[in-house]
Amino acid sequence: MSRQEIEGEQRYVARLYRRLDELREREAGRLETALSQAGTGHQALLERDVAAARHRAGISRLDSAENGLCFGRLDLLDGGRRYVGRLGIPGEDADGEPLLIDWRAPAARPFYTATGISPQGVRRRRHIRTSGRTVTGVQDELLGPDGGDGALVGEAALLAALSADRTGRMGDIVETVQAEQDRVIRSPHAGVLVVQGGPGTGKTAVALHRAAYLLYTHRERLARSVVLVVGPSPVFLRYVGEVLPSLGETSVLLSTVGELYPGVTAGGEEPPGTAEVKGRAVMAEVVAAAVRDRQHVPEGGLEAVHGRETVRLGRAECLRALERARATGLPHNRARPVFVRLVVDALARRVAEELTESVLGVLGDDGEPFAEPAPVPGEDLDAELLGEEEIEGIRRELAADAGVRAAVDAMWPSLTPQRLLADLYASPGRLASAAPRLAPAERALLERAPGSRWTPADVPLLDEAAELLGEDDRAARAAAEAERRERTALAQEALDTAHGSRSTDLEAGEEAEMLTAHDLLDAGLLAERHEEGDHRTPAERAAADRTWAFGHVVVDEAQELSAMDWRLLMRRCPGRSMTLVGDVDQAGARSGAASWGEALAPHVGDRWRLERLEVNYRTPAEIAEVAAGVLAALGTAAEPPRPVRSTGVRPWHLRVSPEELPCRLGELAAKEAVAVGEGRLAVIVPGARLAELGRAVAAAVPGAETGRDVRLEGTVAVLDVARAKGLEFDSVLLVGPEEIAAASPRGLNDLYVALTRATRRLGVVHTGELPGALARLVPYGEHGECGGHGEHGEHGGHGER
Ligand SMILES: Nc1ncnc2c1ncn2[C@@H]1O[C@H](COP(=O)(O)OP(=O)(O)OP(=O)(O)O)[C@@H](O)[C@H]1O
Fold it and tell me: Rounded to the nearest whole angstrom, what is the distance from the C-alpha of residue 728 to the centroid of ligand 1?
C-alpha cells in the first residue's frame, strides 16, 4: 500500500480524533455545569440527575472508542465513501454527512457482508489498522466483477487477529466480523434464537456482539430492562467481561446461573451425580410436593392451650380450611393468612358455641352436647347470647395467643425457600414423601446435613421454591406502588423538561449517535433510581432483584443447562427474547441438553429459530484434525467446523509412567511457557487430580495459577475441563485423556472441549493407553517445532477443505 494512501488515512483519522476530543470536552463541560446547578427540592434534583446521567454515559461511550476508533472504509460504486468505526461521529456541519458510522448502523452492514457476487453498492472495502491514534497500515479488497469473492471478509486482518497472542481476556471482533456471524448478530430481537456451532466458531464473540447490537438498536427499552448474559463459570465471565464495556455498553449483567439468586452465594461443591438429580425436570414436582407436605393437619386436628382452657378444632374442619386456602391458588406464604383466618374463625365459633352451651346448660348428663348436627364454621351458629362483636373479640384473642399461633404454624408454617430446601435435604422421610418418583439411591444423593453450603444446582431449586412460597408482602407492595406512581409523574416532568431543552447540534445526520436522556432513561427508571439513596445502575438493580424481567437474555454454553436451570432463566425473561449459543457436542454436565428441541420444548414448544456457525476461527487445521477424531468417536452426525488456518506444528502425545507424571509435567509446562512467550498456556487435567498436578506445575513454573478461583492473570493456568469451558489459550497441555474420557458418561465430550481450547499448540500427556480417538497425534519429538513461538504465517485457506 502506498505511503500516500496511509498518509491520507492518517489525516482523516486525526480529524476523527480531534472531533472525538471536542465531543468529549463538550460532554465534560456539560456534566460539570449540570452538577454545579444549584437547586433544592425533588424536581431540581431529578433534573440534575437526568442531565448528569446523560453526560456521564456520553463520556464513557466516547472513552470506550478511543482504541481502534476507525477501522474501515467503504468506497461505493456511486463515488460515495463511508468510514466505519466503533461509534457514530457526526460531522462538524450539523446538516452534513457523518464523519464516522457506528459498526451497528445499517449503513455499515456492507462492510461485513458485501462480496464480489453481492457487492451491495460497494466497490472497495478497506481495513485500516491503527496503533493508538496512528495509522499503521491499510488493506484493500476490490469487489465487483474483478475480484474480492473470498469466503472470508478482510482475510488478512482476520488472520492477523486470530494468530495474535492471547491475553487471558477476550477482545471484541468489530473489525473482522464475518458474514455468517453478522447475520446472527443482526437477527431480530424478538423470540428465541439458537446458535449452534462447533468449538471456536465464534459463538461467544457473536453472542456478545449481538448484545451490543440489540442495545444500540433498542436502546430505550433495553437500557432500562438490562440484557442478562449467562456463562458457565465465574472464570469464563471474567474472561469475556471486558468485551461489552469495550464496545461502550454497560446495561448488561454477566452472571452464572448459580449467581442468580440474590442473597445466596452458591459456593458449595457436590458430586456430579447429585447435581444431575437436582437438575432434572422432576425436581419441580419435588419442590411443589415439599411445599404441599408442609401444609399438614395432624391426626387429632388442632389442639391448643388458650389461657387456662384447651381449645380444639376437629381434623375435618382443619382440612376444610386447608383446602379452601389452597383453592385460592396463592403461593404458600400468601395463602397462609387465608388459612390462619379460616382456622381462627372456626375456632372462635367453636369457643363461642361452647361458651353458650355451658351458659345455657345444654350439656347432657355425660357432659357432651346433645347429638345435634355439628356446627359448620362460617354459618350463623353463634347462639343468640354472643353477638358478632364478642365473637370478633374472641377471634382477636385467639389470633394473638401464642399457643394457638404455634398450633397453626405447625399446620401451615411461614417458610423461606432456604428453610424449605434445607429441611427437605435433612430428612429422608420428607424426601421420600416429596420425591416418590426418584429411586431410593437418587434420593440418598440429595440428603445433606442442615447448614451445608448451597451449590449452583441448588439455585434453580431455591428459585422454584421462592415462586411457590411467595412472600406475604401485600401491604408493602400497595404502599410501594402508590409511591412509585408519584415518583414516575415527577420524573416524567423532569425528563420532558430536559428533552425539550436538549442541544440538537450533536444529532446531525442519520448516524448521529450521541445519547439523549430519553435514550438512557425513561420516567420509570429515573423514578426508581430516585428512591431515597438508591442510585444503582439498572444492571445493579437487576442483580439484586430475583423477580427482575430482563429485556433480553443471552446464554453462552447453553448446552450445559439443566431442565431446572432453563425454568429459572425462562422466569427471568417473560418476553422470551433470548439468544442461546452452544454446542450440544460439548455438553459435559450430565444434566445438560441432548438436543435443543428437547431443552426448549417445555418452554417455547417449537417456536425458536436456529442459526449455524460452521467456520472454526480458533484451532488451526492440525489440532482440528485431532478433535475431529474425537467428534467421530462421539458418534454424532455433526460435521466438525472448518478451520481457517494452519500453523505447521503438529499436536503431539507423550506417554509417561504414573510415578514420573508430576515431575515430567512440570518440565513440559515450563518448556511450553517459554514457547508461548507473551501468550497463554493452559494445563488441563482430570478434575480429581487438579490439586495434585496444580502443585506440580506451580513448583516448576512460578506464578502458575491453579485451584478453584483461577483469574487468568498469569501466563500459565492449571484447570479442569469444567473451568476451561469457553476459554482459549495459545497452547494447551492436556493430561490424562484416558481418565477424562472415562470420568463420566460425557467424558468424550469433555475430551473434545479440552482439545479445542488451543489457538496454536497442543500436547497430550498420558499414563495409560492413548485413546483410539487420539490416533492422529504424533509422538513427542516428531511434531515439528518449526518456528516455535510466532509461527503464525501459513494458513490453510478457507476453501481448501
Ligand atoms: N470474526 C472474527 N474475527 C476475529 N476473531 C474472531 C472472529 N470470530 C471468532 N473469533 C475469535 O475466535 C476465537 C473463538 O471464538 P469464540 O470463543 O467466540 O468461539 P466459541 O464458538 O464460543 O467456542 P467454544 O464453543 O469452543 O467456546 C476467539 O478468539 C474469537 O475472538
Answer: 9
